[in-house]
Predict the structure of phosphoglucomutase (alpha-D-glucose-1,6-bisphosphate-dependent).
Amino acid sequence: MTKTVATKPFEDQQPGTSGLRKKVPVFQQPHYVENFLQSIFDAVEGFEGKTLVLGGDGRYYNREVVQKVIAMAAANGFGRVIVGQGGILSTPAASHIIRKYKAFGGIILSASHNPGGPKGDFGIKYNVGNGGPAPEKVTNAIYERSRAISRYVTVDAPPVDIDRIGTVEVAGMTVEIIDPVADYAQMMEELFDFDAIRKLFKSGFRMRFDAMHAVTGPYAKEILEGRLGAPDHTARNYHPLPDFGGHHPDPNLVHAKHLYDALMAPDAPDFGAASDGDGDRNLVIGRGIFVTPSDSLAMLAANAHLAPGYKDGLKGIARSMPTSAAADRVAEKLGIGIYETPTGWKFFGNLLDAGMATICGEESAGTGSNHVREKDGLWAVLLWLNILAARGESVMEIARKHWATYGRNYYSRHDYEEVEADRAGRMIEELRAKLPGLPGTSVRGMKIEKADDFAYHDPVDGSTSEHQGIRIFFEGNSRIVLRLSGTGTSGATVRLYIERFEPDPARHDLDTQAALADLIAAADDIAGIHAHTGRKEPSVIT
Ligand code: VG1
Ligand code: CO
């Protein structure tokens, strides 16, 4: 029943920060999906008879691609595919299922925080046996293969009914359709003190969780309302929709502004949270206070021992380079390792596998731990709930005490989206050329201490990843970082990250943008962002 189909390479199948992401019509071209899937299978070895985990965030085209993956997995010789009911698996749940069932790897269908729908974005990501995103060595091999591919194999079989839980057979391969939530929810019960959180909700604690019509809805509904006894309507927008209701499922202050406003209102609930398209990001807002993801990482790390799963403490903390140094101060105080990696979760896998880091985080609203090999939105929310229950304090109190102890890292990210790729590239090139001359000079009265193009040397496998973002450090622990996004699908997105350390508690009440104004201006002086992009202001400020 296996058939071989002749094909020609597409030149644009290079995986970015997190898999291959393109507009839906690009993926809909004949052979496009098949070419990429076959390139994955050709780039890895030893899966004969083994298990592949499969699921996605439910966006437009998810169901069609699920069927293609099943047919091609059968033709390529996998023994079993485990697929989430309805083709649904959040990214962290997929990571867990790969690990729990000792699968060979997994395919996650998602473009995460990017909008969906027939004209929106789609994505395919390959995860390896540790449950984490394929490392660069593998994604490079997939790309190489995609440029030389001349055939793929598939089987002629009727589509599998992925809505019915159970086991079926496709061309000699087993397909198991599982409840996407159960295994994940059980793991959360093992990591956190559900009794304490239940008591918190019983005492009248009010929370609002916005699933943004994306994949976390069913998980949040079951865990928060079903298992933790939070009142009905705690989870909002919890039906996953193929177009996310027409919104960006990106939990930031722009796309989740309604949640922010609710938490700043006089009758605000105690705690607000949201997650993204595929459930790996989190937004955390306390009554009257937004917690930046960089701060959240630091606060979670400082308090993690309050949760049963982390009661023995942390081995180390890892953060992506653009993430603020707030976590570094916590690691220093705890006397544990701190690691700085390039953007993207794939760089944390080795540190987690080697037991060097327990908690990891990114400024882009991603936090996670060694329980899986992906960032995990609900996990972060549950750890916050566990900490709130254990400390009996509000988010505001916890944040203020944290800053008083460690100092505050004012932090913001400015995105310039859909800039012409050539112009963005030129800006980075020019800036790179300028770097050697910057140290020792002053901009707006601030002295530059160091400037470089970040390169990462993986302490576990010895590999090097270069050109991971331009860093300019100023005296007094301030810095700006500039890099181009690797997840966008049209033009280039310029990301400017700005950070300033403020040790003095008397100055912990400033407005973030005001506190960073001189650095923001300096970034433009140095890099010519406005002139290069032709934009007067960023499209998104978080
Ligand atoms: C962005 C974020 C990065 C994150 C990546 C995937 O990448 O900056 O921190 O790991 O998205 O997140 P980039 O290259 O666009 O800056 V997800 O939740 O979209 O899979
Ligand atoms: Co995501």
Remarks:
- DSSP finds 18 helices and 27 strands in the chain.
- The two ends are 52 Å apart (CA to CA).
